[in-house]
Design goal:
Length: about 375
């Protein structure tokens, strides 16, 4: 990816230091060398996500979405729009788990920036668009963002006493480095809570604009966000890179070779949704949401099926079920995927609390 690094360096020499958000845009989405030109998810990719860990995730999410549909009075058409649909794994799981009652009403459409991914999604039978703004308005449905917002470009703001500083990317001795300077008006205008002295926080105008776009294409229903991040009053996680399923902090060595990400500011999301007139539920942890949706009963049934396979001496089924039994708990592990956060924002006349946000006894 040296070519992309050289092009970024040349751009900086010509125009001056760039914000971290600009750097992310080039490193992740450049059409000639950006990270997302290649499929990043899966056992051979840079990272794995919940749907790839266990199909239980998609099954339980389908249960949550179907409950939202039911809460709206079971409209004849219910449109699920997954933004950042990737390879379609989650889409296939949700569509495959829809009940006989829900399936006739379910229309699933995918939004994906990669042209190649959109072609693959269409071959799999999904409507696909390049952006949410291309999607026709839906009368009822759900806008779903699973591990999307952490990859949208963000500014890095730092509290420095009475002033706010920002991280920029510059060039020195032929390499890319980070420097600190006065924050841009663009970044500060999207800051939704005060910065403490010494604190760094990612500020993502793109994530907050996502809420605006979602509210504009749905008359009633929910925006549903699953991601890793931090809540109101909590400190942000460090900015990091994923490469070969390993985490590192070499953000500037080889742009385009690694994913660049930071935890989503769920406090800012909730504040923006409230300002838009949406009713906010959460954030709650993925652990609590999946358990409220029935993970424990599903896991008990999985163990029972494994015991039945052992009694029948069905070696193939035993191996498959043991593998699932070992992987699925990662979804609710409080030190791993279970620590991810979930937020729902209700649009229009969306009835009641979305499924999954009620507390679980003994959680």
């Amino acid at each position: 990816m040296t070519g992309l690094r050289d092009r970024i360096a040349a751009h900086i020499r010509a125009a001056g230091p760039i914000t971290f958000a600009e750097y992310m845009t080039m490193a992740l989405y450049d059409p000639d060398g950006g990270f997302y030109l290649r499929p990043p998810v899966g056992v051979d990719g840079a990272f794995v996500t919940s749907p790839h860990v266990s199909p239980a995730f998609g099954m339980l999410l389908a249960r949550q979405i179907e409950g939202m549909w039911d809460g709206l009075g079971r409209p004849g058409e219910y449109v699920v729009t997954e933004v950042g649909a990737g390879d379609g794994t989650l889409a296939a799981q949700i569509r495959g788990a829809a009940s006989a009652d829900f399936a006739p009403a379910l229309r699933y459409r995918a939004v994906e920036i990669s042209a190649g991914a959109r072609d693959a999604l269409r071959r799999a039978g999904f409507d696909a668009a390049a952006s949410l703004t291309e999607c026709a308005p839906a009368a009822a449905g759900c806008i779903l963002a699973h591990e999307l917002l952490d990859n949208l470009p963000f500014h890095r703001l730092r509290g420095r006493g009475e002033r706010i500083a920002e991280v920029f990317v510059d060039v020195r001795d032929g390499g890319l480095i980070q420097v600190e300077a006065q924050a841009t008006e663009e970044a500060v205008s999207w800051l939704r809570a005060p910065l403490r002295d010494g604190e760094e926080r990612p500020v993502s105008p793109a994530s907050l604009r996502f809420l605006h776009a979602a509210a504009g294409v749905l008359d009633r229903g929910h925006v549903l966000v699953y991601d890793y991040g931090f809540g109101s009053g909590e400190r942000a996680q460090p900015v990091r890179a994923y490469e070969g399923q390993r985490v590192h902090d070499r953000l500037y060595d080889d742009p385009g070779a690694a994913d660049v990400t930071a935890g989503v500011d769920f406090g800012a999301l909730a504040a923006e949704a409230t300002a838009l007139g949406l009713r906010v539920h959460g954030p709650a942890t993925q652990r609590d949401v999946l358990r409220a949706l029935g993970f424990d009963d599903w896991f008990d049934d999985l163990r029972a099926r494994r015991r039945d396979a052992e009694a029948a001496r069905d070696s193939k089924a035993i191996i498959r079920l043991l593998s699932e039994q070992s992987r699925a708990p990662l979804l609710i592990d409080a030190a791993q995927l279970g620590a991810h956060l979930v937020l729902a924002a209700a649009i229009g006349e969306a009835a009641g609390t979305p499924p999954g946000f009620a507390p679980v006894a003994g959680a």
